[in-house]
């Protein structure tokens, strides 16, 4: 699979899943535009390192995904957008009756509304270029639910719905839109939680991963950012030309339960 000559914009991509997806798209030959809400030297250095490692063009564009105007401006500043990966997201855990309103609003804005704004800005660009792929990073929580995650679950269900509408509106064009629904993924953020969880349950690393952290994931293994990147590359390939408006679960069997 080669994506040489294509430009991919990945939101929330200076770490974790977004960075893993960006790296795999670059490995496949795509030029990549990284994004987050910060504007540090290390953000721009990260883009430069990807460009050097994979021999592609890469740049970093600051944009706050809680702000619709900045979401749309990201696409303009990217200088092209053949592939859009809506990945940016945050989380907060609380009972519904105690859920902070500001947290609800922020999660809906960043996890759901940002995908609407970037997609709305990207589709005309894709149409002008005669090809496009939209990949939304949803979640197993876009297909099922857990208590105390009302905003996140609502937003991710919304992302799945937005994916279907986008696919239907572009069905007769050379543009597809799909959602990837990861289960638990081994990111630096999750890795950092393991020692505290080990101490809390007085368990070893492997035991706490399998029995506590991955209790709902039947494979008892984390998905990796590389696997999610590979799935994204596949959805951008010619082999996936007739795959649109659907979800692909990368969750070790979680949603099969």
Automatic annotation (TrEMBL):
E.C. no: 1.1.1.30
Record's keyword terms, sorted: Oxidoreductase
Keyword Zinc-finger: no
BP terms from Gene Ontology: monocarboxylic acid metabolic process
Top-rank lineage group of the source organism: Bacteria
A GO molecular-function annotation: 3-hydroxybutyrate dehydrogenase activity
InterPro entries: 3-OHbutyrate_DH, NAD(P)-bd_dom_sf, Sc_DH/Rdtase_CS, SDR, SDR_fam
Family matches, as Gene3D superfamilies: NAD(P)-binding Rossmann-like Domain
Homology family: Belongs to the short-chain dehydrogenases/reductases (SDR) family.
Record's protein name: 3-hydroxybutyrate dehydrogenase
Organism in which the protein naturally occurs: Thalassobius vesicularis
């Amino acid at each position: 699979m080669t994506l040489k000559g294509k430009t991919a914009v990945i939101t929330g991509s200076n770490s974790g899943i977004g960075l893993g997806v960006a790296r795999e798209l670059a490995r496949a030959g795509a030029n990549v535009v990284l994004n987050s809400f910060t504007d540090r030297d290390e953000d721009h250095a990260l883009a430069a390192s990807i460009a050097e490692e994979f021999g592609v063009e890469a740049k970093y564009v600051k944009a706050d995904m809680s702000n619709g105007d900045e979401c749309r401006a990201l696409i303009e500043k990217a200088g092209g957008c053949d592939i859009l990966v809506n990945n940016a997201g945050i989380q907060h855990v609380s009972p519904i009756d105690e859920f902070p309103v500001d947290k609800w609003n922020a999660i809906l804005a960043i996890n759901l509304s940002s995908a609407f704004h970037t997609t709305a800005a990207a589709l005309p660009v894709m149409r002008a270029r005669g090809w496009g792929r939209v990949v939304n990073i949803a979640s197993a929580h876009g297909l099922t639910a857990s208590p105390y995650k009302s905003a996140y679950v609502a937003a991710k269900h919304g992302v799945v719905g937005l994916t279907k509408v986008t696919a239907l509106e572009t069905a007769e064009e050379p543009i597809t839109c799909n959602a990837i629904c990861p289960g638990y993924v081994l990111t630096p953020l999750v890795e950092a939680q393991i020692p505290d969880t080990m101490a809390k349950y007085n368990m070893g690393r492997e035991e706490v991963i399998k029995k506590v952290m991955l209790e709902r994931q039947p494979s008892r293994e984390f998905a990796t950012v590389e696997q999610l990147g590979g799935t994204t590359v596949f959805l951008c390939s010619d082999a996936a030309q007739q795959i649109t408006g659907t979800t692909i679960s990368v969750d070790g069997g979680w949603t099969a339960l």
